[in-house]
Write a structure and sequence with these properties.
The structure holds two protein chains of two kinds.
Chain A lengths: L2 H24 L12 E3 L6 E6 L10 E8 L10 E8 L4 E2 L5 E6 L2 E7 L6 E10 L2 E10 L1
Antiparallel strand pairs in A: 1-2, 2-3, 3-7, 4-5, 4-8, 6-7, 8-9
Chain B lengths: L6 H29 L3 H10 L19 H11 L12 H4 L44 H10 L8 H11 L1 H8 L18 H8 L3 H22 L8 H10 L12 H11 L18 E2 L15 H10 L17 H4 L12 E2 L21 H10 L17 H13 L3
Antiparallel strand pairs in B: 1-2
The chains are: A alpha+beta, B mainly alpha.
Chain lengths: 144, 412
């Protein structure tokens, strides 16, 4: 086998691999290294936020609620916060199909009503948290 | 390559060999794709099956929703042509019982031609928002629209109240209690009618208006109770999906041909149809701009952008005084996305069950055949307003034919 020959076969193999990668990508599978943590520090480190869907599992195509728990890094409940809810599907370039809203439950817990995921794939749920300590944001990834 | 071939032959030979290798690789990939479904695909396929459809949820906004008498009365009203200005139009005119409750026309015709295509009604009771633009949030509120639309039934709520008093008093009163005294109510009056009808309506005291509105809402509630019984029937695809989920080999009327299975794989994979046409009703119950062209000569149609405003303003919505639901049960309306650029020319994702056998397609009948629908998704044209969510599909003729073949398995 000449080196040219090898090169061409190599190119063919690469082409097949690229075709596979493209095919997989076009199915919009979430990135495999996605951080799916349900509890994390907010971007600026002001708070620690944790989310939990009602009923424990995430449902598709149904209006449902989540509970967001906000504490200080030291673990104290953050009360009286103003919570903004946003999100969407980064791979599809669209936002949430609904306009969820937060109500305070007490003890640093906030009920997030009106969430709906109408497709499977990678979703982001973003919260902006404004309380005495300041304003900070956090983004959670979900894989449906 | 044999060592005796000349240099020039070899040069031509090398790319050929590479092509063969490429073709073999792609062929291998394609053939193993075609023979069996991955675990993830099997799970998605199961989620599309009618078996995945839960029980019909209650409609808290309509306390008569599951009453047998109301449903029977609603069935009568649905086919009652006298509920129209000219005595010739019923709901059944545009929602034909033997045609999946639609009418096969690009744009429906009642008293005159409308701007939109009729919609099939199977499992419509599960839809959170009604119409192509979702401008109503319950079946009973929806039914009130065509009754007063000039191009559809063309009547007035006052006229309908009198008609019920004259022809269906007993059946009405058995369900809803006594009809109000209508002696002071003109024969034709409505806040949505022509000048004379609006003037007549405005002259009525508010309490009388409310009594007439309540009779009107009750007619909607009876019709809605009937519509809750219209459901999807099992298709060959559902039988296939059931057997596949059980890990068995499909046989008899549960078999999908190789082409149909290939189309199914494309539907849930590369063609990304399942992004929007998902769940057992093949709809995400949401609104998308898919670049379906506007129809020349019709007024500008902004789709959901207008529909969202209208449902919020509808006096018969879930939060209105004629709704039986407590505010907490109106989540769909309360948390509805009411504005945003993505609402412009977004229309409701229709179910694809039965679609292959009921052309034409799209909100105003813009596309004539199912083949042309698939061609639309391949091209993904820019929208006539707002931005299309579609990206052009890289699928060949064979794949397009396979998608069409699959769509037929959910229509038989």
């Amino acid at each position: 086998m000449t080196s040219r020959n090898r090169l061409l076969i190599g190119a063919a193999v690469v082409a097949v691999l690229v075709a596979i990668v493209l095919a997989v990508q076009s199915m919009m599978t979430p990135p495999s290294d996605l951080d799916l943590a349900r509890s994390k520090a907010t971007a600026g480190g002001l708070y620690v936020a944790a989310i939990e869907p009602d009923g424990g599992t995430v449902v598709q195509n149904e209006l449902h609620a989540w509970t967001l728990t906000v504490t200080t890094p030291a673990g104290e409940a953050v009360t009286g916060a103003t919570i903004g809810v946003d999100g969407g599907m980064p791979q599809h370039g669209h936002g949430l199909p609904t306009a969820p809203a937060a109500t305070e439950l007490g003890g640093g817990r906030y009920r997030i009503d009106g969430v709906r995921f109408n497709m499977s794939g990678w979703w982001e749920l973003k919260f902006s948290i404004s309380a005495a300590q300041g304003k900070d944001d956090v983004v959670f990834n979900l894989s449906l | 390559m044999s060592s005796s071939t000349s240099r020039s032959e070899r040069r031509r030979g090398f790319p050929f060999a590479a092509l063969v290798a490429l073709a073999a690789g792609v062929g291998l990939l394609a053939s193993c794709q075609e023979s069996e479904f991955t675990e993830a695909e099997t799970a998605t396929i199961a989620s599309l099956s009618l078996d995945a459809l839960g029980p019909l949820p209650p409609d808290p906004s309509n306390r008569y929703a599951d009453e047998r008498l109301a449903a029977a009365f609603g069935a009568t009203l649905f086919f009652e042509q006298r509920l129209s200005r000219d005595g010739n139009v019923s709901c059944g005119t545009c929602h034909k019982i033997d045609r999946q409750f639609q009418d096969d026309l690009p744009r429906s015709v009642g008293i005159a031609e409308t701007n939109r295509r009729s919609m099939p009604l199977a499992d419509v009771a599960r839809a959170p928002f009604l119409f192509w633009d979702g401008r109503r949030d319950s079946l009973w509120a929806q039914a009130l629209g065509p009754l007063e639309d000039k191009r559809e039934h063309g009547g007035t709520r006052a006229g309908y109240a009198h008609f019920i008093g004259d022809h269906y008093r007993d059946r009405y009163e058995r369900i809803f209690g006594a009809l109000p005294d209508l002696s002071s109510v003109p024969a034709a009056a409505s806040p949505l009618g022509d000048d004379g009808e609006r003037t007549a309506w405005a002259a009525l005291p508010a309490a009388k208006q409310e009594e007439v509105d309540r009779v009107f809402a009750n007619l909607g509630k009876a019709i809605a109770a009937f519509e809750r019984s219209i459901v999807h029937e099992e298709t060959r695809f559902d039988r296939f999906a059931r057997v596949l989920a059980a890990g068995e080999e499909p046989a008899g009327d549960a078999v999908l041909t190789e082409q149909e299975r290939y189309g199914l794989r494309l539907f849930v994979g590369k063609a990304q149809c399942v992004n929007c046409h998902n769940g057992p009703r093949f709809t995400d119950d949401h609104f998308h701009n898919t670049g379906v062209p506007a129809v020349a000569g019709l007024p500008e149609d902004l789709g959901r952008e207008t529909g969202a405003m209208q449902v919020l303003a509808d006096p018969f919505n879930c939060l209105g005084r004629f709704s039986d639901a407590p505010a907490e049960a109106c989540g769909e309306l309360t948390f509805m996305k009411a504005e945003g650029p993505e609402l412009r020319r977004a229309f409701k994702t229709p179910s694809l069950r039965g679609a292959a056998t009921r052309p034409p397609y799209m909100h105003s009948g813009q596309i004539a055949t199912i083949e042309d629908v698939v061609a639309h998704y391949t091209r993904a044209p820019a929208s006539d307003g707002g931005t299309s969510e579609l990206v052009p599909l890289k699928i060949n003729d064979r794949e397009r034919a396979a998608l069409v073949a699959f769509l037929k398995t959910i229509a038989e």
